[in-house]
Amino acid sequence: MPKFPIEREIAFALKDVSRMLATYADQQGRDFGISSAQWSVLVRLDRSEGLKQSELAELLDLQPISLTRLLDRLADNGLIERRADPNDRRANRLYLTPAARPMLEQLGELSKRLMETVLDGLGAESRERLARDLNVLKDNLRAAINRNAQPQTNKVLIS
After folding, report:
1. 78 and 99 Cβ atoms separated by less than 8 Å
2. Could you tell me which residue ranges the HTH marR-type domain spans (predicted)?
């Protein structure tokens, strides 16, 4: 019988896997001169070009100043460009440059190899189940976060 509740062990395992995956991605990305954080920015933009910096910061759960530094490096390396938002003079929209496409292809191949290492020992059925279960966790967390973001009128303040 485990010493701690299984729910606690799952929470720790999820956090550990997330941290270790980022560390391993950083190690693997060094050959391309890219960090896992920069890699994440490129992949998100590949999925949704034209995001505002604020939208991307929220998606990546980054502070705007941290994202700005990442974007500056990527722009300096010719991988992204900022374009003025036609509807908001204060905002920029983010786009990949043509130079980013070959990098994303290489990173896609690297990602496949990386995830084969991570998922070694899990068959196709287990991988599909894991993906479904993780999506349930994401949905549960998204709903809880949205509920907590709603103004609470019945909160009791303890002084």
Report:
1. yes
2. 7-139
Host domain of residue 68: 6-121
Instruction: For the chain, list residues with pLDDT below 50.
Output: none
> Contact 82/71 with Cβ under 8 angstroms?
yes
The total of other beta-carbon atoms located within 10 Å of residue 82's CB is 14
CATH number of the domain residue 33 falls in: 1.10.10.10
Q: Is 131 in contact with 139 (CB distance < 8 Å)?
A: no
Residue 104's nearest CA partner among 34, 35, 42 is: 42
| Number of structural domains in the chain | 1
Look at residue 31 in the predicted model and tell me its pLDDT: 86
Distances (CA, A) of 34 to 29, 67, 78, 109: 5, 15, 13, 15
Cβ–Cβ under 8 Å, residues 56 and 38 = no
What residues contact 127, with CB distance under 8 A and at least 6 apart?
119
* Residue 104 forms part of a structural domain: yes
Q: What is the pLDDT of residue 149?
A: 84
